[in-house]
Amino acid sequence: MPNHARFLLWGAINAALAVMLGAFGKHALAPLLTEKMMEIWRTGAYYHLVHAVGLMVVAALLERSPHPERVTIAGWLLLTGIVLFCGSLYLLSVTELRTLGMLTPLGGLCFIMGWLWLAASAWPKPTH
Fold first, then answer.
1. pLDDT tens digits, residue range 57-110?
2. SS3 letters across the chain
3. Residues 70 and 115: beta-carbon distance below 8 Å
4. Cα(118)–Cα(78) distance, rounded to whole angstroms?
5. How far apart are CA 39 and CA 93, in angstroms?
6. How far apart are the first and last CA of the chain?
7. Of 27, 44, 57, 87, which residue has the fewest beta carbons closer than 10 angstroms?
8. Using an 8 Å Cβ cutoff, are 13 and 53 in contact?
9. Using one digit for the tens of pLDDT, what is the confidence trace for 9-18?
10. Is the pLDDT of residue 126 over 90?
11. pTM (predicted TM-score)
């Protein structure tokens, strides 16, 4: 499967998951969680959806960028960020295990690095 199709697939699946998990939090978990834990869940769902769309942007740009290898790195970083950042927030909110919070900044760093790699992919190739 070519990378652009792979990132489109991952983006669409993650967008669907973000919507489902957001709705699950709102309708099933809200009565069970404290307001603080519910806010953590909502933050995870919000970042999940935003970065799922980011994966679809990666898919759209892969064949248009002068540096497709940088776009690919950006995509893997965004996907890793979803798992670490959003996954840790989802788990933290339902378990209240504070140690899971150690993964969240690593996921956030992956998000930041992914967006910076995507920015770097727009840099023109040097002409020699």
1. 999 999 899 999 999 999 999 999 999 999 999 999 999 999 988 999 999 999
2. CCHHHHHHHHHHHHHHHHHHHHHHHHHHHCCCCCHHHHHHHHHHHHHHHHHHHHHHHHHHHCCCCCCHHHHHHHHHHHHHHHHHHHHHHHHHHHHCCHHHHHHHHHHHHHHHHHHHHHHHCCCCCCCC
3. no
4. 10
5. 8
6. 33
7. 27
8. no
9. 999 999 999 9
10. no
11. 0.94
Token pair of 84 as six digits: 């670490």
The answer for residues whose C-beta is within 8 angstroms of residue 38's C-beta and 6 or more apart is 25, 29, 30, 93
Write down the domain spans for the chain: 3-119
- pLDDT at position 124: 84
Q: Token match 């140690």: residue?
A: 99
Rounded to 5°, the CA angle 71-77-80 comes to 145
Task: Name the residue type at position 106.
Answer: L
